[in-house]
């Protein structure tokens, strides 16, 4: 069921189409997302298929963090450096590496730090083999978790991001993945802002050069292959709110850093916060078939906030979508609907809506009345 609703009087909304009049990037793929609400402030081929390169390691880290949280892996556990990990991801491979020694054992925490800071391919493979026995089995875990997160345009085949024609993602999915890591695993997020790491006598700087630029960037991951170009998933709280940005398909490390910096800086300064629905505000009502009351109020999960481009005045529109009518019992807090916000008919944000109160089954008269209503008119 689809209900048209009014958000507020004619106010501005951060919408990609309007934003792109004022901003552009050299990146082939780009997304700028508000962390708190998920609003996409800027996009450029956001759903186009791309080679994630080492940014795929964010999915590797999501699986590793989840295994640690579940108690199946400990930070002090030691994993064996196999010949496969050493040859495919070590110094001999010519790619980013931890320089882990063949047949040695490395603590899980050190492997995590290497994946984050050094983008160590050997470290990523060692983690995959230590957790799942092989890269292939670990990739199945990556894809299962990606599906749970809601990454609809991604498929992973290895933990490193090394080139594989069957592996792909999108800028939007990478931004959503970055947002997921920050939200779900805050206890591990500090690793992303560490400036350097030393292993086997070799010190390497964080490959995300924006971390040390003094603009508030504290994560997340860079990536590069010859075919895909240079990309990064970056985040900052500069400007009073957290933003997550993705840029990809650039020609050099310098270009990657500059385009990421420009996108984050513009996003932090060009927008202001708008809260059309404070916490507890009824957004709309959903019909309840045969309930003790005919409808239930719908509220957000806390306040529903949007970001507006400064100086812009455009009318907003929104719909509430749900499979209706709802059937009792409906429990307070149940997620039963979705708010979809549009600007000029372009979907720019979605937010879950929950039942504001519980609704039990109605008496025989109420159920009979609703049945007659359905027969006579249907549920519109």
UniProtKB/TrEMBL annotation:
It holds the Pfam family PBP5_C. The keyword Zinc-finger does not apply. It is an enzyme of class 3 (hydrolase). Residues 271-361 form the Peptidase S11 D-Ala-D-Ala carboxypeptidase A C-terminal domain. Pathway: Cell wall biogenesis; peptidoglycan biosynthesis. Its EC number is 3.4.16.4. Keywords: Carboxypeptidase, Cell shape, Cell wall biogenesis/degradation, Hydrolase, Peptidoglycan synthesis, Protease, Signal. It catalyses: Preferential cleavage: (Ac)2-L-Lys-D-Ala-|-D-Ala. Also transpeptidation of peptidyl-alanyl moieties that are N-acyl substituents of D-alanine. The keyword Oxidoreductase does not apply. Transmembrane segments: none annotated. It comes from the Bacteria. Residues 1-19 form the signal peptide. GO terms for molecular function: carboxypeptidase activity. Removes C-terminal D-alanyl residues from sugar-peptide cell wall precursors. Belongs to the peptidase S11 family. This is serine-type D-Ala-D-Ala carboxypeptidase. It comes from Devosia honganensis.
């Amino acid at each position: 069921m689809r209900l048209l609703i009014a958000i507020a009087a004619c106010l501005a909304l951060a919408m990609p189409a309007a934003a792109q009049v004022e901003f552009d990037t050299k990146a082939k793929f780009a997304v700028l997302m508000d962390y708190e609400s998920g609003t996409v402030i800027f996009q450029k081929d956001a759903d186009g298929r791309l080679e994630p390169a080492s940014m795929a390691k964010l999915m590797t880290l999501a699986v590793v963090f989840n295994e640690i949280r579940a108690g199946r892996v400990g930070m002090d556990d030691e994993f064996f450096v196999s010949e496969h990990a050493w040859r495919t991801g070590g110094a001999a491979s010519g790619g980013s590496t931890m320089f882990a020694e063949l047949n040695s054992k490395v603590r899980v925490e050190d492997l995590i730090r290497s994946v984050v800071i050094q983008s160590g391919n050997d470290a990523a493979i060692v983690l995959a083999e230590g957790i799942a026995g092989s890269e292939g089995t670990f990739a199945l875990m990556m894809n299962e978790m990606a599906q749970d997160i809601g990454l609809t345009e991604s498929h992973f085949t290895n933990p490193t991001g090394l080139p594989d024609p069957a592996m792909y993602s999108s800028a939007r999915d990478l931004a959503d993945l970055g947002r997921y890591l920050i939200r779900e695993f805050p206890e591990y997020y500090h690793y992303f802002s560490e400036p350097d790491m030393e292993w086997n006598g070799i010190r390497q700087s964080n490959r995300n050069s924006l971390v040390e630029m003094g603009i508030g960037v504290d994560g997340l991951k860079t990536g590069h292959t010859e075919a895909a170009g240079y990309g990064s998933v970056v985040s900052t709280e500069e400007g009073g709110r957290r933003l997550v940005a993705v840029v990809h398909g650039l020609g050099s490390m310098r270009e990657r850093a500059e385009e990421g910096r420009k996108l984050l800086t513009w996003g932090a300064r060009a927008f202001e916060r708008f809260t059309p629905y404070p916490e507890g505000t009824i957004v709309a009502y959903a019909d309840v078939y045969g309930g003790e009351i005919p409808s239930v109020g719908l509220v957000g999960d806390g306040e529903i906030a949007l970001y507006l481009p400064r100086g812009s005045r455009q009318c907003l529109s929104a719909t509430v979508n749900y499979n209706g009518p709802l059937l009792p019992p409906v429990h307070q807090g149940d997620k039963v609907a979705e708010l979809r916000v549009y600007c000029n008919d372009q979907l720019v944000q979605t937010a879950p809506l929950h039942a504001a109160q519980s609704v039990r089954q109605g008496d025989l008269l109420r159920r009979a009345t609703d049945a007659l209503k359905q027969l006579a008119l249907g549920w519109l």
